[in-house]
Amino acid sequence: MKVRQLRRIYDIKKIDFWLSFLVLAGVLISGILSGLVIAVIASMLARVHGTVQDVLKRISLKEMIEEGRVFNTVSDTVLEFKNKYK
After folding, report:
1. Phi, psi of 27 (to 5 degrees)
2. How far apart are CA 5 and CA 11, in angstroms?
3. pTM given for the model
4. CB neighbour list of residue 64: distance below 8 Å, 6 or more residues apart
């Protein structure tokens, strides 16, 4: 294992670094096959989480959930639309 490559992965994309660290830990603790199964499951969960976050950002639902504005009234939605497209 090359530390420089792991450091570069950490600088570029932190989630991939942590997944590779999980693979290493899983293989060392539980063996090759079990470690790889853990890594595949963790990788799939990370990708699903990233995809869901992207979709929520695109439809602006994430910001609305954080602000507690998920269930706007009709008048609030109309005013927001008018202000956005003046």
Report:
1. -70, -40
2. 10
3. 0.54
4. 70, 72
| Distant-in-sequence, close-in-space partners of 62: CB < 8 Å, separation ≥ 6 | 53, 56
Domain ranges of the chain: 3-84
Q: Which residue has 């079990």 as its token pair? A: 34
Q: At what angle do helices 14-30 and 32-58 cross, to 10 degrees?
A: 160
3-state SS, residue 83: helix
- In Å, how far are 14, 28, 86 from 11, measured between CA atoms? 7, 24, 42
Report pLDDT digits (tens) over 36-58: 888 889 889 988 988 888 877 77
Which 8-state DSSP code applies to residue 16? H
The per-residue pLDDT for range 57-85, each reduced to its tens digit, is: 777 766 776 776 666 566 777 777 788 88
Is the CB of residue 20 less than 8 Å from the CB of residue 3? no
